[in-house]
Design brief:
Number of helices: 8
Number of domains: 1
CATH class: Alpha Beta
Helix content: 25-40%
Order of helices and strands: EHHHEHHHEHEEHEE
Shape: globular
Strand content: 15-25%
CATH architecture: 3-Layer(aba) Sandwich
Structural class: alpha/beta
Radius of gyration: 18 Å
Number of strands: 7
Distance between the termini: 18 Å
CATH topology: Peroxisomal Thiolase, Chain A, domain 1
Largest sheet: 7 strands, mixed
Length: 240
Amino acid sequence: MNFSIDQWNAWAPGLDSADAWADWCASPQPIVDDEQQQPAVSFLPAMQRRRLSRLARMVCHIAWPLAESYPALPLVFASRHGETPRTLELIQELARGEALSPTQFSLSVHNAIIGLWSILRGDSSEMTAMAAEGDGLEQAMLEATGLLAEGAPAVLLVIAEETPPALYRPYIDDVPFSYALALLLKPGDQWSLQLEPGNDTPSVSQWPHAINLLRALHGRQSRLEHHWKHRKWVWSCSKG
């Protein structure tokens, strides 16, 4: 797979600008995730903002600036865990014998965020929501480069995760803090992504894989490897 990363945007608690990310990538430190901290998305009308979960706000906040100059733009959204806080709340309501909110239920499904995005943008382009375990970024990249190969001039790829509720934290160990990364991809040979046989040894890192890619972009790192189960993904940059 060959592609170019034309632009990127990212958000995590306390990191909301290119300069802030550059400083953090130069000297990464643990991020304290205040669950009340979330993007304002003030560019959206108040009535529309009220429907958005924290995860949806993160996605809109980072993706909107990259999409503004495109009246139509295919989107690939990847999240391994999705709307876990909203889903847990629904499960707890069921356990208490309470009636479920149809709106809350409809917004808890995995493709709800891209549905909202399509409505907010008025964009009926092809859009995909994915959940692909520990190599979701690469699986999303596979989908996105397929769209580029079919003739799309640009594709927006977004990967986002929210810190899970306390009940789930013993079982979810790959989201140390909430984060979202958006990549505006175009045809080109700036980057290549290759799949090789792995040895069933997952990559061990303090940071989520999408954040490691962001660190590689800042550090002009020319090669990045990610292992997941029997797959080994090799990222190579031809331009530093």
